Amino acid sequence: MATFLKELRPFWDNRDVAYDAPFDPERPHEALRMLMSRMASLLKTAISNKEKAQIKQKTNYDKHRSDIQFELNDLVLIKTHALSKAAIRYSQSLEDRHKGPY
Hints:
Blueprint: E1 2-3, E2 6-7, H1 28-62, E3 78-79, E4 98-99
Antiparallel strand pairs: 1-2, 3-4
């Protein structure tokens, strides 16, 4: 399949991946050790990138939110969520959206 005149390769095609050392068939454990250490470092990098992204998402979300502290005897409105019921001829759109103040 070609997209914009460039052939898409499957995910298992790793021609662009450069390994640290060539594979020696007499010592496969060395290549395995290097591969495992590389995978561990990639996992650490992925976890740190995920944590950075979560922090950034939280700060962006919190920009538009305010922390409201309620005191004793404050008047508040309670949000209601009424559902329409055709059987008893009740419409949600005519119901109050909030009840209170309490």
